[in-house]
Each structure stands twice: as structure tokens, then as C-alpha cells.
Amino acid sequence: MRRRDFMHAGLAGALALLNARLWAAGPGGSRLLVVMLRGAYDGASLLVPWASDFYYRSRPTIAVPRPGSADPNAAIALDRDWALNAAVRESLHALYMSKQAVFIPFSGSDDLSRSHFQAQDLMELGQGAGGPLDYSSGYLNRLVEALSGKASGGVSFTNNLTPVFKGAVPVPNISFKGNPKSRLPLRSADLIASLYEGTRLSGLATSGMETKKQVSEELMNEMAESSRGAGAARAFESQARAIGKLMRDKPAYSIGFVDVGGWDTHVNQGSAEGALAGNLAGLANGLAAFAKEMGPLWKSTVVVVMSEFGRTFRENGNRGSDHGHGNTLWVLGGGIAGGRIAGRQVALGEANLFQNRDLPVLNDYRSVLAHLFARMYGLGDAALGRVLPGAKAEDYGIV
Amino acid sequence: MRRAALFLALLVAAAGVSAQEPSRADLQFLNRISYGATAQDLQALRALGREGYLRRELAFHGDEGLPAEASSFIAALPVSGTRPQDLAEQVKAARRAAFAMSADEKKDAAKRLRREFSELDFQVFERRTARALLSPHPLQEMLTWFWFNHFNVFQNKKQVRFLLADYEERAIRPHVLGRFGDLLRAVLMHPAMLVYLDNAQNAKDAVNENYARELMELHTLGVNGGYTQADVQALARILTGAGIDLSGRPDGSRGGYFKQGLFAFDPARHDSGAKVFLGRSFPGSRDFSEIERALDLLCRHPSTAKFIARKLAVYFLADDPPQEALERMAAAFRQSDGDIGATLAALFASREFTDPAYAGRKFKDPVQYVYSALRLLYPGQVLRNYRPVAAALAQLGEPVYGRQTPDGYGLREKDWASSDQMVKRFELARGFVGARGRLFVTKEAIDAGIDPRELLRAREARPVERARIEALVSPLLSRRTRETLSRAEGAEEWAALVLSSPEFMYR
Asked: What residue of A is the nearest CA neighbor of B407?
């Protein structure tokens, strides 16, 4: 593989400059959705380094076929180095071609535990590795806090509140496993509110009952329907549509979080077809549907997709991959400077693998988030320092 | 006016149970080591005293003392009489039959088999729930959940579908109060775990790290327990060859090959080269002994004692347990060579465990919430339909056997307390009281389109026993809660509010 240019000038651009070029959100305000892929998805099967012979040598059975051949499963070239898995042709590739998708390979956190659970927590908390994890707040909660008073609020599309939204600001969650028919009568709600008055669970109890009132029965039905049957990533398409409707119509839910599981492919992961490709297709179709659902607001919406770490660059003994390090992060949005591969890159070869097994991390996920938050919300140094302490905002030129 | 009503309510309650009013301390004690105190548990506690009660409960009793109706319910479940070997034969027969089938027929046959297995797995849930609700030894039933969760497998991964019942019944349950090393070994030698964490495919020259990593991170040492990536790789090589054998050949060992049930160690798949694991040199062996040595090393590692002590203390005492109690528990674990009962005895005898500051402060996880609600409302009664229970747990995000990832469900308030969780509990509380008829008619009757009068009869046969319930909760309720409860209209609204109260969210 050819050695790629490093990121252009302005990489570590001064924050003052970032703020000066604030992203212009439309009259409906901006929207942010963070998608967490739990289990460490194999980025090298999505964004394929097709020019690298080392990639094909390292993955004799799971590499995605090179673009250009007659094979219908061949990857779709994006440039001289990178190609997309054909499973996302109608969704992600279409978004990329209309300049609404950016991929950042070699990204991730500095966690070295290779533990899903530790790495996910670290990433949701928005901390750097090294010290003990501080569970008091997650970065999306701190973001909502930093934006308080600006008609924006958080919502978590998860069964329970995960570390990313823990913190000072109460954030409601909406799960896909509800019983849409079940509604508390007003009288019960009043009595229950009285039971909780002055207790530590009071905020959760009342915001739970309030949130339920905000979501129409029709939408609840759709959400409950979507979680039946298929596995997590495949069910995601209808879930994403419901999320889109809700985030579009409710400015109070302008910062959302959702997680998708099923990415821990130690065995028979497949390449352009198979378990992983199916999951990628489900995920990407879902996000394309989300984009459509947002309507005109898509122009001022940003979606970030990431995973706790990447997988081993070489395939393991079972046509799968084990826990690795660097991975590919994606940013989607109707108004971003897309159709690009962004961030620092390095030539792919044995010498450049991290610990001779994984992709290195050259682009800290927090520096990407800091870039997005600075531009989207005009956060200054001090505020960014509270949301993502210690992160360096670098100019990825996405918004 | 309200005050008068409250006074009257208390008077009525007191009249019903006057002689045996349980103390706040006894209720708090039992609520933490059971899925909610019942009159039966209180009676045992009174008869034996705390020490005697604990001595009894820290031993495994199996299904001893289960009400006859519950025992026969469990015995009648098809899963109770099914061996995993038979199910493996069924799978093999289905595979052979598939050769002669068209693509559509194959799909149908696979679907039928999946449905059959998921029915069996539902019976495992029914068995687990019946025991949790009715066993006179509730601590061992909580521990069955705890250790299954510690060694979590997901029911819908590959062959786990038909191995689940045996995994819980033979690998987990008999060891829940025994020696940790025996439990760990039983899990390692169970095909459900080997399939779930891919070790069944881990072989010389085709190494898979999945089980090796989780065995240290989640099962023994803990993530900061002092192992490195090199240790993960070494343990993965040590574990090569431990897999499953569905051939149906008789058990036994020959030339290093060792088969027991569906478990097999195959020396031909084992990497017998030298390794360095946790700083010890492993010269390499051609039999199972190398794996046993690694397990011993892990069980006796000081990080394991600490990790297990902490996890038990988090489950039974506090989200952030005090250091002193942890040290005593870890010491008990080490000195008893990993005896789980002895480790728990050190916790239950600790000053902290009886300190009121730690009582009633553990947020119930959904399983604890749902089971404790049912034990409070319908003690001693065998449910006839477990579907609403499974649905409630799925809604609350903790379906039994449904955790996909090996970390198991979280044990702390932060894992469960959310706005959505609260409102769902309020809704479910109304359902457990108002729709109770559905718990006591069979799911087959409901599927066949039950006559609403029959549902009504099932419901009316079980009126809400307000006085009995009141005795089990009122010592725990705040003044505000009592005041609000006094505004309830009728026993049903009152009971649903009790289950919705902040005090009932904790144990």
C-alpha cells in the first residue's frame, strides 16, 4: 500500500479558529446521534484496504475481494487505497457518493486491556486510559450539561442508561422492549409521583412517566415491533426509523445514543457475505433509513459510529478475528464535508502493526468528537475541556 | 381524616398478624439473602436464629422441601427427563434426514427443531422460576442465578440451545455453595461454555483466544488481575483440544483422549509445546493435566480471591463494598481453598452486614424485582403460566438466559436504575395484581382462546391479601409512603402501589 499523506495543515488547529468556523445549523437546530457497536466490529471488513497485499496475505479466507473483478461480491473502490464492502452498496456507499459519509481508519481509544467491557466503559465515559475509570459521568451527559439552556437535551435509546449518559443532567431512556398498550392511568401516575417525592429516585420516576407521554402509542408500537425476531443489528433498520421520527419531531431529544450488539466475530465471520456482512448491511440500511426519516433536518444532523476497539489484522484459526486495537470510525450527515477518508494514516505492513497484531490508533476518538462538538455547538476551550477532559481537538474538516 | 384512615389500616393489619409481627431487621436480613422474605422464611429464621438459619442455608439442599405440587410440576417438565446426549442424537438424526430433503423441507425441519429446543429452554426458565419462588432454601436459588450469570452463556448461540438445561442443572447448580475450583472445572468441562466461547474450535495451529481471555477477565482474575496479552495467548494454547464430542461413543480415556458426556479432550488438537503462563513455565503435556494445572493456578491466584469476594459482596451487600469486609471474605476464600459457603459466611457474619446503614440500599435487578413481587403477592402458589413472568423480565431488560455477552448482567444500581425501567416497573406492578388471572391458567388455555369467565375465576380465587402483605412490608416503609398508600382505593390499587414504592425497589 502506498504511504498516504498525513493530514493536512491545520491538523492541530487552534480552538479559536475552530470556533470561528462554526457550523450553521438550520432553524430546527442540530441533531447528533452516537451509535456504539458493542463487541468490537471488524472495520477492516467494512473499509477494505484493497491496495494492500499484506491485507490479502493476512486474511486468506475472510478478506473482502478486490474491486475491479467481475465478482458481484467485490468491494467497491472509494479511492486508490480504500474500498467499501459490497453489503453496504445501497446505503453507506450511496451516502459516501453524495458526500455525506466520512471514514476515519486507524482510530480508537488508548485502552490496551482488549476487554470489551472495560474499553466500552472507557469510551462512553470519554476518558483516556491509564487512571482508574471515573464513573460519575459520561461525555454525552457532560455535553448536554455544557449546552444547557440551548434547547437541546439527551435521550438514550437503550434498555437502561449506559455510562455515556450518566451524570449531573437527568437523561431519559427509551427502550425498544416496551409494551405499547400498557399505560398508567393519570391517577396512578399522581400517586406514584407522590410516593417518590423527595426520594433519590424521584427524578427517574417522574421523567419515566413523562417520557412515556411524549412518545405516541403508534411509535411505541413500531419500536416494540422492531425488536422482535431478528438479531440486534438486523432489527436495527426499523429501530433507526423510529429513532429518526422521534429525534426529528422533538427538539428536546436532539442528542441521542443507541447501541447495537453482535459484532464479536471470533468464528466464521465471513467477508462480503456471511454473519458480519449481514450485520453491516442491517446497520447501514438502518442509518440510511434514519437519514431519510430526518427529512430537511438531515442537513444539520451528524451521526457518529464507533466501536470499543478493532480486531486482529490477521485472521485467527477459525476464520474469525480476535480482540485488537485500532478501528474505523464513521461520521455521517447531510451537511458534512463527506466523501472522504479522513485522519492520519500509515502504510499497512507488518512493521506498522501495533504489537505485531493490530491496527494502530493514530486518531483518538476523543479528538474526533472534540472537533465535531467544537464546530457543531461552538464550544470553547473551557467547555470542551469539561466535556472531554484532556482531548485535543484536531481539525478533521468534517463539519 | 387521612391519619384516621392510616391508623385504621394499621389496626386491621395488626389484628391479622398480631402475634408474629416481623421486625424491620429480620425483614431486611431476609430480603437480602432471598428473593423477598415470606412468612415461611420468617418462621424458619425465628425457629433457628440467625446463626442456625445461615448454617442451614449455606449448604446446598437441591429440591428438598419444595412443595409437592412444585416438585411434581418440575418432574413433569419434559426437560427434566432429557439428557443432552439424546438431544445431540436428535440433531444428528435431523442432519442425516436433511440429506434427502428439498431446500424448503430443510428449512422447515430446522425451524421445527429450533422451536422444540426453545420450548425446552422455556422449561428451564419455568424450573428456575418455580424454585426461586417456592424453595424453602431461597439463598441457593439466588446463587444459582448469580453463578450462572458469572459464567454466563447465551441460549441462542449454536448448540447452547440444547445444552442449556444440563449446564444449569449439572455444571452450575450443584456447586453454588461448594468449592469455586469445582465450579470452574465443571464449567470448563461443559459443552455449553466450550461452544459459547468458541473453545470447541480452539486447536493447535487454529488458536482462538475467546475463552482464554474471558476465563481470566470475567471468571477468575478480573480485568486488572495481573495478566498480560502474552498470558491470554499462552492460556489459549493451553486450552487447545478441550472441546466437544457428539459422536455418541462411550465415555472413557484412551491414549490421552478423554471423553465424558459431550465433553472431550483431544490430544491431537492440543498444542503440547512449552508455554509460559502467569510467570510459570508449562513444559507442555499431551493430556488434560496441563489444563488442570492452569485452572489450579487461576483458582489459587490472590486476584481471584479478591475478584470473587468483591463480586459476592456487590451482589449481597453494597454497590461499593467496604474494604474491610472484602479483605475478610478474600481471606476466607483463600484459607478455605475457594469454599463459596465459607466466603459468604464471612460476609454474612460481618459487622457491615448487620449494620442498618447497609440495609435496604441495594437496588433490585429486574429478576429480584419480579420474583420478589410474585413471592409477596402469591407465596406458596405454583404458577401455571410463566409467560407473563418471562415477558416482564424481557421488558425490563434482563431475560433469563438472554444475555448475549459473557460479562453477564450488571449487579449495581447504575446498571438498572433508569427512567424507562421505573415506568415499566410501575406498569408491570399493576399487571401482576390486576391481571393475576393470567398467571394461574395455562398458556395453552390462553392460546386456545380462554373464556374470560375462567380468567375471572382464577383471579377471584386469589384475592389480594392485604393484611398479610402489610406485615411483610410496612416495617420498611417511610412515613411518606404510608401516607400515600393510605390514599389508595381498594386492596388492588394499594398492592400495586406497594410494588411501585421506592422501598420495594431496594432490598
From this structure: A117
Pairing of strands A101-108, A363-364: parallel
> Quick one: pLDDT at residue A232?
65
Question: Which of A195, A203, A355 comes nearest B497 by C-beta?
Answer: A195
Closest CA to B171 of B140, B148, B198: B148
Of A116, A117, A160, the CB nearest to B421: A160
Average pLDDT of the residues in A36-56: 97
Across the interface, of A195, A262, A323, the residue whose CB is closest to B502 is A195
Name which of A155-159, A181-185, A248-252, B213-217 the model is least confident about.
A181-185
For residue A319, what is the DSSP state? S
Q: Does an H or E element contain B302, and which?
A: helix B302-316
Q: Give Cα B392 to chain centroid, integer Å.
A: 16
**Bridge partners, B252 (sequence order):** B259
- Give chain A positions within 8 Å (CB) of B497: 188, 191-192, 195
The low-confidence residues of chain B, meaning pLDDT below 70, are 1-20
Residue B270, exposed/middle/buried by CB under 10 A (0-12, 13-18, 19+)? buried
Residue A166 and residue B394: Cβ atoms within 8 Å? no
Distance CA A275, CA A261 (A): 13
In 3D space, the residue among A261, A338, A275, A279 whose CA is nearest the CA of residue A303 turns out to be A338
Distances (CA, A) of A27 to A151, A155, A297, A300, A336: 12, 21, 9, 9, 17
A263, closest residue in chain B (CA to CA): B405
In one letter, which amino acid is A232? A
Which residues from B are below 8 Å from A193, CB to CB?
none
- Beta carbons of B213 and A323 less than 8 Å apart: yes
- The secondary structure of B86-126, three-state, reads HHHHHHHHHHHHHCCCCHHHHHHHHHHHHHHHHHHHHHHHH
Other beta carbons within 10 Å of B462: 14
Alpha-carbon gap, residue B119 to B502, rounded angstroms: 36
Give the rounded percent of residues in chain A with a pLDDT score beyond 70: 91
- How many beta-carbon pairs below 8 A join chains A and B? 165
pLDDT value at A106 more than 60: yes
List the alpha helices (DSSP H) in chain A. Answer: 15-20, 53-58, 94-97, 116-125, 139-146, 186-196, 202-214, 217-226, 232-249, 275-294, 365-377, 381-387
Q: Give the total residue count for chain A.
A: 399
Identify all chain A residues contacting B493, using CB atoms and an 8 Å cutoff: 188, 191
Locate B138 and state its grid cell.
Answer: 431461597
3-state helix, strand, coil in chain A (%, to 5): 40, 15, 50
Three cell numbers, residue A303: 451521526
pLDDT beyond 50 at A12: no
A318: closest chain B residue by CA:
B206
In the block, cell 420495594 appears at B504
Mean pLDDT confidence for A386-393? 91
- Whether A129 and A111 have beta carbons less than 8 Å apart is answered as yes
